[in-house]
Design goal:
Length: 181
């Protein structure tokens, strides 16, 4: 029973780890966008290679005949770097509004920039600036895909840009950062 009926009880919003709903929403977006950029950048250094390994018997020992099997394995390395698939590079090369003087440096920087932006966002370093950089990068990628008529890729990138824009509108709820900006 309320001892003072003239006052209505106020209810505090439920918090998780001291975070408001807006903070948790922003942290969810920051985590997703950071991981998305980081993994996308790392995958640009990945390749599948075929390696030969000895055929093992039922006890896990190499087969006495010396037989080998070929196994496809995913590996990462600087020598495997590819910014965009060859088929897209070919289409971009035929586009007069994308001169090679710009695409070459863009291809060289794309993977490292994605990794850097992902790490900055995950660590909460210069979050607002990282989000702006991410928006610019996704806009440049969208521009290229618009020119070669890749509407599906444009749609996917539009979703990314919408998430970045939403993050920028909620950036004042940012917490758990290494820098304040």
């Amino acid at each position: 029973m309320n001892p003072n009926p003239s006052q209505t009880p106020t209810s505090e919003p439920v918090r998780f780890l001291g975070c408001s709903g807006q903070t948790l929403a922003f942290l969810s977006l920051r985590l997703w966008l950071g991981l998305r950029a980081l993994v996308t950048g790392l995958e640009k250094f990945a390749a599948k290679v075929n390696i030969q390994e000895p055929l093992l018997d039922a006890q896990g020992q190499p087969d006495p005949s010396g037989a080998v099997v070929e196994i496809e394995k995913k590996v990462y390395g600087l020598s495997h770097y590819h910014a965009v698939p060859e088929s897209l590079q070919t289409k971009f090369a035929g586009e007069p509004l994308l001169p090679g003087i710009f695409t070459g440096p863009f291809y060289a920087a794309l993977g490292p920039i994605l990794i850097l932006l992902g790490l900055l966002l995950l660590a909460g370093i210069c979050t607002r600036l990282s989000l702006v950089g991410m928006a610019l990068l996704y806009t440049m990628l969208t521009f290229g895909l618009m020119l070669i008529g890749q509407d599906q890729g444009v749609s996917w990138l539009a979703i990314h840009i919408a998430l970045v824009a939403l993050s920028l509108s909620w950036v004042e709820h940012n917490r758990f950062t290494l820098t304040r900006s």
